[in-house]
């Protein structure tokens, strides 16, 4: 783990302590201390130029014991090309997917996200990778995130854009557009191309 990754992991642990303390503590003075700790964490992140625009809201809306958030992504191939979607938020490209919603299984979340963003109905066939966002060259974030990448096959539907994904397309490994590294890295995408030739490989993790 690099120095920056180690620093971010420490700050995320501090944030988790503050979040859990705010939920479980019934002492008004402890509540104030945990709120102050959260403010100090926000300031540390700002000093590293990490976006904290929605910091307080994102932290406090997760009630209960603090745990990593789960982001699910679909890996869909058509012959030797991979499906990517252009993100309206940053103008870069990613795999279809997003935050896992409560009330759905992991595969159901993937299917829902793909349908919403691309108009395609898919079947999830394999968990390719379960990774800690801090360890794979993603853009730093104050959230601690696990990313789950699932191989999917298309059952039906026609490629259709959405508000969040105004452009869609299949790309070969040599013609990838600018990648949204907050969501997926080019190295991960290249790994998924390699997996095309190794369909029985075991799931990668960490």
From TrEMBL:
Ranges of residues in domain Nudix hydrolase: 67-197
Family annotation (PANTHER family): ADP-RIBOSE PYROPHOSPHATASE, DIHYDRONEOPTERIN TRIPHOSPHATE DIPHOSPHATASE
CDD domains per UniProt: NUDIX_CDP-Chase_like
Protein name: ADP-ribose pyrophosphatase
Superkingdom field: Bacteria
Ranges in coiled-coil conformation: none
Pfam annotation, one family: Nudix_N
The organism of origin for this protein: Acinetobacter larvae
GO MF entries: catalytic activity
InterPro entries per the UniProt record, alphabetical: NUDIX_hydrolase-like_dom_sf, NUDIX_hydrolase_dom, UDP-X_N
